[in-house]
Amino acid sequence: MVIKVFLASSSGSTAIKKKQQDVLGFLEALKVDYAQLDIACNEDNRMWMRENVPVEKKPTNGIPLPPQIFNEESYCGDYETFFDAKEDNAVYAFLGLPPPPGSKKAPVKEEEAQEEVEDEEAKGEDDQPVSEEEEELRQLEEEEEAPEVTEEEEEEVTEVEEAEQEEEDE
User: With a threshold of 0.90, does the pTM exceed it?
Assistant: First the structure.
């Protein structure tokens, strides 16, 4: 089985280029056999990709952007679903490939996976203990995602935080 990654070699979008490199780099690291199919230089590749991305997976304008990933003729997903699979350590399942021998994570039966999801949902986020490191990491991630703050807004936040700290100390 060959994984097909449809990409655009001459994309003007840096975001698309980064996504394509992320997918290819990760497949290289996993030593997964794949073929790069260029949609910028090959009209047949472009048409095949557009025709074979399922309708429900196409954006509102109907034209899927690279990278798009297939296992032979079977659609695996786009960058976002690849990224989610990567985060969940489920790339082999995403690609429709068996995990390599000796891999740490054995495939999980669908029923077990559903039970795990239900258990996590029942637990709720507030029930989970958070270490100081995890909290700092979460705050850093929020800061990266947050819009830029002016100096005045930062001073106001600092004043509020100091006031809250004084209340806690009392």
Answer: no
